[in-house]
Design brief:
Length: about 325
Amino acid sequence: MKSLSLALLFNLTIISVLSSQCILPSGSYSWGLSELNSHITSNCGGDLSAGLIIPTDAVITIQNNDAWDLTVYGSVPFTILGNGSLEFNGTDELTLSLGSSLVIENSSNTIALKESGVGTNIRISIGATTFTGDQFAVIIASGGANQDGLLPIELLSFSSTVNQQFQVELNWETLTESNNSHFDIEYSSDGFNFENIGTVAGAGNSIHYRTYDFLHTSPNKGINYYRLKQVDYDGNFEYVETIVQEISTSVFFELKYQTYSALSFDIKQSAKLEIFNLAGKTVATFSLRAGEHVINLSELQSGQYIIRIHKKGAQKIIRIVR
């Protein structure tokens, strides 16, 4: 039996899991970038990976002709709750890095993004995409935007595993959803010709982490292809991801036990194991040889994690809570 210590795997590096989002103060006030950075440093540890929130009772004005450049914080989920408001003056700008999103929690709130004063350069930039003041109403009505334009969903993961009945269990997770009517699950045995094998209802407009699942009861032996189709209420759609799952008559993974502090399993072939937090960040990754393994989870900070054990053609997804 092989016992693996997370402390050794991390080379004694302390992994910090952010448990809450960075919330701006309530009330009405005007802030420049210096005031915003000071709040982030003092109250949020200088980390916006879990999100920046304007609460429902806050009306914040960017100081005249200032710019909130948040690219130094990496990918930022920026959310305006309820009747919260972000107001732009003069040539104000909000700049977010590629991978960020701007989510309007209450799409009926017409003042979630507001212009005051005259300014031809009022804009929001997310990666290479720029929105100007005359597009604010569209962003609000749709519930948000990201670097590719209006944001239908923010997909955290789409994965598959084979159960003991040799059925394919599909699982996916979203961080945010906007105008999301439903998901169509499409299947192909050759990777070219797809057919719809099921539909799962979406959450409409949501800023909460959500999980979805679908069971394919009749996959073929060998290679199977699955793609996820996200459909808006108005009928617009996009394909968000395609994955491949191989069906084999040999079971490569067998779970022995799972507790609050440990995970024991047996694998028939060499595989890779990865641990992710709910923000999608890799907490640990390492290679395993065939045999029995025990993973010590006691040094993970409190929270939810996703463990993915995979080899070519097969994978197993396990969710744990510490």
